[in-house]
Design brief:
By secondary structure, the chain is mainly alpha-helical. The protein has 3 helices and no strands. It is 51% helix and 0% strand. Helix 1 packs across helix 2. The N and C termini lie far apart (45 Å).
Length: 55
C-alpha cells in the first residue's frame, strides 16, 4: 500500500508507517505536504552549506 493510503485507513502515522515499511516522520511529512497542497514526490529543498567541509 502507499503511504497516504495507509494513513487514510489507519488515521495514525505510527500505524501507517508500520504497514508501509517507512519511518513515522516520513508519513507525517507526506501528510503535511498533501494537506498544504504540495507534491509529495517533489524533492525536498535544503539550505546550502554555509561553511566549507574542511574548515
Amino acid at each position: 500500500m502507499e503511504i497516504l493510503e495507509t494513513f487514510d485507513v489507519t488515521g495514525c502515522a505510527h500505524s501507517a508507517a508500520s504497514l508501509a515499511g517507512v519511518d513515522p516522520k516520513t508519513v507525517r511529512r507526506y501528510v503535511d505536504a498533501r494537506d498544504w497542497g504540495r507534491l509529495v514526490d517533489a524533492p525536498v529543498q535544503r539550505p546550502a552549506r554555509l561553511t566549507s567541509r574542511w574548515g
